[in-house]
Design a protein that fits this description.
By secondary structure, the chain is of the alpha/beta class. It has 8 helices and 6 strands. The chain is globular and about 45 Å long.
Length: 215
């Protein structure tokens, strides 16, 4: 869907984001992966909103906890049923910022990194809907879905979609802070490293070209 008017002036933070894509990593170890997750008021892309965003970065296949982002977003839309899942109340005790500020922080944080998420299509779509409300273009980043990456490993001959819980159990990843954006991002980062290790065993080595085939 094309919603952005090409004649509209882009804000400086989005111009800087676009300029970042002029730089191309030369090796797989130079690629910065940003693993992220969103908690939302529900699953309706048009009516529901992002409650929180959590990220953690990986470079040279090592997690860098200091390279992370966590933000909570002020709400006009609220679904009390989802509190049972993520525990985020409309007011709550978290310091909250506007949707516009949260998206700005997210865009500045990710730059030209490869985005990684579990069942990534939904999280990407929610971010794109927020960008649309701000009259900004969609994300340009390459995206890896750990659910799809799992299938590439052929770890188990099973094509059924696997939840994050199921894959954490399969790969012996201790689950904590589940159903918080930052907690799920960290669990997904651990899963991504486990899957990358399995793929390295399968293909002998990991290359930028090989990973690009999975974007």
């Amino acid at each position: 869907m094309r919603w952005f008017n090409s004649h509209k002036k882009l804000p400086d933070f989005y111009k800087a984001y676009l300029n970042a894509f002029k730089e191309k990593p030369q090796s797989i170890n130079a690629v910065r992966f940003v693993i992220f997750d969103t908690e939302t008021t529900g699953l309706n892309l048009k009516e529901d909103r992002i409650l929180s965003i959590g990220t953690v970065a990986i470079k040279n296949f090592q997690i860098n906890i200091s390279d992370s982002l966590e933000c909570y977003i002020k709400q006009n839309t609220f679904n009390p049923k989802t509190v049972e899942v993520h525990g985020l109340l409309k007011e709550g005790s978290f310091s909250k910022i506007s949707e516009k500020e949260s998206i700005k922080l997210f865009i500045e944080h990710i730059g030209n990194s490869v985005l990684v998420a579990h069942h990534a299509a939904f999280d990407i779509a929610m971010i794109n809907e927020a960008l649309k409300r701000l009259e900004l273009p969609k994300l340009k980043n390459k995206v890896i879905d750990t659910g799809i990456l799992y299938k590439k490993t052929k770890y188990i001959n099973d094509n059924k979609p696997k939840s994050l819980d199921e894959l954490c159990q399969l790969f012996n990843i201790t689950m904590h802070d589940r159903h918080t954006a930052s907690g799920d991002a960290y669990l997904t980062a651990l899963l991504f490293l486990k899957l990358s290790s399995k793929l390295k065993q399968k293909y002998k080595h990991l290359s930028l070209r090989l990973f690009r085939s999975w974007f």
